[in-house]
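Exercise: predict the fold of this chain.
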Amino acid sequence: MGARGIQPKAKTPVGEAKEPEKPSWLTGEASKRWDVIIPQLVAIKTVQEQDANVLARYCVMWEQWQDCQVILTTEGMTYELELKGQGTICKERPEVAIAKGLAADMLRIENAFGMTASSRKKLASEQQPDKKQSPLERLRALTMTG
């Protein structure tokens, strides 16, 4: 069919899950987050060695998001600003916007790696065997890849 026709649904490439090496510069809470998520991603087979950089960025964002949450918990979501001759106004803390941005960025990465319920469900449905294949063909496909 032409360029405007129905395009076949792309299958998620499934390779062998391999634990990426933790970057040496990853420290603190970011390093701890790495230690938590990498075994989980290996277990669900959504991570490979070349994913180290994006997952390191995710871990750094996680640490920054936590830092924002600590500030918001202790200082509150707003602060008062004194305007010369106009009184006091209430403003949203900058950490609110920073935390929202980090949360949105992290969610995109979480969805890409099957770290949310809906993304795991989508990945599982993409990995379902082709219903048009006979049981023998499915068995052959499993033995050739496994």
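Check your answer against the key: The longest helix spans residues 52-75.
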